[in-house]
Amino acid sequence: MSKTLRIEIVSDFVCPWCYVGKKRLERALALRPELQVELGWSPFQLSPDMPREGRNKLAHYREIFGEERAEQIAASMRDTGVEEGIAFGASADAVSPNTLSAHVLLLWATEDPDIDTDAVAEQLFRAHHVDCANIGSHDLLVDIAAAAGMNPDQVRQRLADGVDEARVQDQMQHAKARGVSGVPFFIIDDQYGISGAQPPEILVQTFDQILADGQAA
């Protein structure tokens, strides 16, 4: 199997289903170890108007879904998390952040060949969903960057200066122009789209079909 599949992951770090989708993609790829894959990440914001300081997560969810529905969703996600190896956390003080700076950090990781971009994405997801940490905080983002091998002083200054925020916002607009209205969304070879956190078996079937179509062409 010589063809390399380019998989672009469009996601937002506050989206629990995006974290689930990441884990399911990893399981799917483990089912096809011979598959050559190039992963890329593209930003999306579910709440682009969120204040930069964020707001209380519980209050935010209750405002969107109502109190009872918000509790049901949280319980359902905890059950799904158990199946996927994600220990979704809960804290009355948890923050729903503005994720623009987090997306900027991942962009910088993507552009540095010495940085494991997927590991940075994992830490951002884990910080929000498991640790109930505020990934809108520049202090936390600097810590994640430093752990990944990035220059913390440089990252702190560039975040404070808003470097590349416009680039990330342009990328989000581009995703919407391509028809992405919800996340997670996986774009394969820039022409096939998979919406939602599909089970690994569905992803594998899709990969196999794309490869078969390519060989038949």
Strand ordering within the main sheet: 2-1-5-6
In total, how many domains does the architecture comprise?
1
Structure class: alpha+beta
* CATH topology-level fold name: Glutaredoxin
Shape: globular
CATH architecture: 3-Layer(aba) Sandwich
N to C succession of SSEs: EHEEHHEHHHHHEEH
Euclidean distance between termini CA atoms = 15 Å
CATH level 1 name? Alpha Beta
Percent helix among the residues?
A: 40-55%
**Overall mean pLDDT score?**
95
User: What's the number of extended β-strand segments?
Assistant: 6
Low-confidence stretches: none
Sheet having the most strands: 4 strands, mixed
Number of H- or I-type helical stretches: 9
**What portion of residues belong to β-strands?**
5-15%
Q: CATH homologous superfamily name? A: Glutaredoxin
Radius of gyration: 18 Å
Describe this structure in words.
With 217 residues, this protein is an alpha+beta fold. It has a single domain, classed as Glutaredoxin (3-Layer(aba) Sandwich). It is 54% helix and 13% strand. It is built from 9 helices and 6 strands. It has a 4-stranded mixed beta sheet with strand order 2-1-5-6, sandwiched between helices. Strands 3-4 form a two-stranded antiparallel ribbon. α4 crosses α8, α5 runs antiparallel to α6 and α6 packs antiparallel against α7. The chain is globular. The mean pLDDT is 95.
